[in-house]
Amino acid sequence: QQQVKQSPQSLIVQKGGIPIINCAYENTAFDYFPWYQQFPGKGPALLIAIRPDVSEKKEGRFTISFNKSAKQFSLHIMDSQPGDSATYFCAGGSNYKLTFGKGTLLTVNP
Amino acid sequence: KAGVTQTPRYLIKTRGQQVTLSCSPISGHRSVSWYQQTPGQGLQFLFEYFSETQRNKGNFPGRFSGRQFSNSRSEMNVSTLELGDSALYLCASSSSGAKNIQYFGAGTRLSVL
């Protein structure tokens, strides 16, 4: 199986909160783990990505934590804003092919 | 640099017809991948092309096909359309030096009636 399991399906936080989205993978051939953000009517936009030899990566308010032994990784959004309200997808990548999680609908209330 | 461009943005077809979707990758990107996005199945990989050759294929029936031209532009074709083919079809491009860093277009919304 080459699934990527993503949770939760939906998440509601208040402005300034720190939503956390989790993903677990099975395919140990994955060598790249991106997160995408998608707004309604738009294509997914690359947000941040990590390689399996790194345990954490920060870009602005977004942080990926990666646990290779557990085959899990997560996205943290610091100081969340209403403009962060979107669907977030994690993925595992290998040989130009991305396998996506089912997505998390994040709502940040003002 | 222009992003990934997909045309048309919207299509309405009837069952049994065929459809062709077009994708222009980011300049300099030679790999083009196609994905199908539906509410039920999420984002699923269709196929990937590099230098006019299909290198990777997902688990879709043979009605789904594609090709890539010498300028890296790609087309995807779906024949004998079924209602279940209604979806957002997304194209992504990547460069040779960053094989899994894929940039997506806005997609083509296909509705099959």
Architecture blueprint of SSEs:
The complex is a heterodimer of chains A (110) and B (113).
Chain A lengths: L3 E4 L2 E5 L5 E6 L7 E6 L6 E6 L5 E4 L2 E6 L4 E6 L8 E9 L2 E4 L3 E6 L1
Chain B lengths: L4 E3 L2 E4 L5 E6 L6 E8 L3 E9 L2 E5 L6 E5 L5 E5 L8 E8 L8 E2 L3 E5 L1
Parallel strand pairs in B: 2-11
Antiparallel strand pairs in B: 1-3, 3-8, 4-5, 4-9, 5-6, 7-8, 9-10, 9-11
Descriptive account of the structure:
Chain A is mainly beta and 110 residues long. Chain A has no helices and eleven strands. In chain A, strands 2, 4, 5, 9, 10 and 11 form a six-stranded mixed beta sheet that branches. In chain A, strands 1-3-8-7-6 form a five-stranded antiparallel beta sheet, with no helix packed on it. Chain A is globular and about 40 Å long. The termini of chain A are far apart. Chain B has 113 residues and is mainly beta. The model of chain B has no long low-confidence stretch (mean pLDDT 94). Chain B has strands at residues 5-7, 10-13, 19-24, 31-38, 42-50, 53-57, 64-68, 74-78, 87-94, 103-104, 108-112. In chain B, strands 2, 4, 5, 6, 9, 10 and 11 form a seven-stranded mixed beta sheet that branches. Helix content of chain B is 0%, strand content 53%. The interface between A and B is medium-sized, with 24 and 26 residues.
Rg of chain A, Å, rounded: 13 Å
Task: Enumerate the spans of chain A where pLDDT stays under 50 for 5 or more consecutive residues.
Answer: none
| Tally of individual helices of chain B | 0
Distance between the termini of chain B: 37 Å
Oligomeric category: heterodimer
Tag the structure with descriptive keywords.
heterodimer; A: 110 residues; mainly beta; six-stranded mixed sheet; five-stranded antiparallel sheet; globular; B: 113 residues; seven-stranded mixed sheet; four-stranded antiparallel sheet; 0% helix
Short description:
The complex is a heterodimer of chains A (110) and B (113). By secondary structure, chain A is mainly beta.
